[in-house]
Amino acid sequence: MQTQTYQIQQQTIELALDERVFAPSAHGLYYANQIPIAAGERVIDIGCGSGIFAVYAARQGASVLATDISADAAELTAANALRNGVQVDTATGGFFAGSEATYDVILANLPQEIVMPDSAVLLGERISEIDGGLRGNDLLLQLLEQAPAHMHETSRMYLPLHTLSDYHHSLRVAMQDFNVRLVAIGDLPAKSFVTDHLGFYLELAEAGAIRLFKHQGQWYTNIYVIELTLKSTE
């Protein structure tokens, strides 16, 4: 099995990779390098994939539950935790996978891109790893609805917003129930399925639904990392 080493903040993490499981992407690695986790915190990693966020949190001394709709992903995350000398509890299922607990930190790098139909055909079953629906934020909006039941007054939820989705809409929805703090903004090269169908995405950008820009001959999108806390009910 192939392995890859990653530097996440002060941690060096080695992951085994499996072609059946989503591997850390440039977006995910940028996000991972912005997340503050403290020892003793209770953390949930939603959509854990190969386990990069869960392992990092456990290496920081947190108690971690990692969930994924893929049993292969949950199994790989548990194995990668042991590979790095920590333990991560795992569960197979969507979002909180049946957990009724509250968490100090919620992490979730969910599929959050608009994928045009032609690309969807080429991607086949792997489309679920990136496709966020018509506006690119279907799963993110579902998480925003479910998360408050798993948060206490000092819980923090860290989310990446990808500008290949209607990120303005995501922010407007988030601000209804959460205090929103901007943690970081990054520029990342647009993926090939974007540049191969540039006309489609430039129309979306022109309409203000996404952000796509060109710099020194290279097309880019942005990633915004935000921190969400519950608004006071008083």
TrEMBL record:
Gene3D superfamilies: Vaccinia Virus protein VP39. Pfam families: PrmA. GO terms for biological process: methylation. Keywords: Methyltransferase, S-adenosyl-L-methionine, Transferase. InterPro entries: Euk-Arch_PrmC-MTase, SAM-dependent_MTases_sf. GO terms for cellular component: eRF1 methyltransferase complex. GO terms for molecular function: protein methyltransferase activity; S-adenosylmethionine-dependent methyltransferase activity. This is Methyltransferase small domain-containing protein.
